[in-house]
Write the structure tokens for this entry.
Amino acid sequence: MQRFLVTGGAGFIGSNYIRHLLQKYHDISIINFDKLTYAGNLDNLRDVENNPRHRFVQGDICDAMLVDQYMAGIDAVVNFAAESHVDRSIGAPDAFIRTDVFGAFLLLEAARWHRVKKFIQISTDEVYGSIEQGAFRETAALMPSSPYSASKAGADRLAYSYFVTYGLPVIITRGSNNFGPYQYPEKLIPLFVTNALEDKPLPIYGDGKNVRDWIYVEDHCDAIDFLLAHGKDGEVYNIGGGNEHNNLEITEMILAALNKPKNLMTFVNDRLGHDRRYSLDTSKLAALGWKPKHDFKTALEFTIGWYAQNRWWWEKLKSGEYLEFYKKNYKMAL
Ligand code: NAD
Ligand code: TYD
């Protein structure tokens, strides 16, 4: 029986990953270690909460004693725990440095002392910064441009240093923009889908021509699992969907799928330091034999339908603090 410690497992990708592991394997056990920040939500795991192979522990990865306690006996760590929203990192970077860098450091330390057999650090394509043309390979220089991506770059290289210095079997993944069910409605796709469902404006930053590569969350989870078995220790792997779209295109797809009018599109102030384009060269992962399984349009339509059918999940999240945040930062008349 392989014992997993999944940190940040109550968030968007972590909860999808736990569901993926439980469906695929019957001979594993998972400790889901999550602080339950605003982004952590046990509703994301309702369907697996009584599964005896999954145990939830509320804890902070910056709590060294607690991390050490739950690291004992673990075979594989998958570190999703992070502050993850660029806009929040612009307003208040502190928590990003604390969790994304220092928290990752404490996990690496504990993993080293407990001789964990595999440590997957979930990094991001944002560590490379923006690219006008072409695509980043894993060897490209890191030029992160937001406090979020700079913190993630810190953890990414710290994880590598634990491989080089201490021989900890670390693999680093740099995924592109995920979308799918259970994504907190502050990120582009769930925010725009839920706003459109409520006939509220969709706040497009700047000219809306910023490009992201989109990957369906289930494909991202599948790639992480693939790398657990087939990745080489000490290596970095880009995980992309091969679906580059600018924000206007994504917005139009959402409005068309929901049959909502284009006049919901509202241009607002640009994000500070807004990266123009992210693009990944994924040939290293492809050479190992992995490629995404989901068609972008089908997965996007499924995702839009999921938010339309699961108002219970997001309606309570779109109140209070969330609205205050957007009003303060973008002066939106929401
Ligand atoms: P999320 O914000 O939905 O979830 C983050 C989770 O981490 C939450 O459950 C939160 O409670 C938990 N957490 C935060 N601080 C913690 C702490 N100090 N201790 C324990 N738990 C803590 O984020 P996500 O979108 O699911 O992203 C997960 C990981 O994947 C992050 O590391 C992110 O950088 C990375 N990533 C995300 C994307 C994306 O498009 N969402 C793309 C590439 C990489
Ligand atoms: P986001 O989902 O925050 O992901 P990231 O910035 O980490 O790539 O944003 C995706 C793109 O959508 C990015 O170019 C910023 C833009 N965006 C908007 O135009 N309006 C919004 O309200 C949000 C949240 C994002």
Q: What stands out?
A: The CA atoms of residues 91 and 328 lie 10 Å apart. DSSP finds twelve helices and twelve strands in the chain. The radius of gyration is 19 Å.
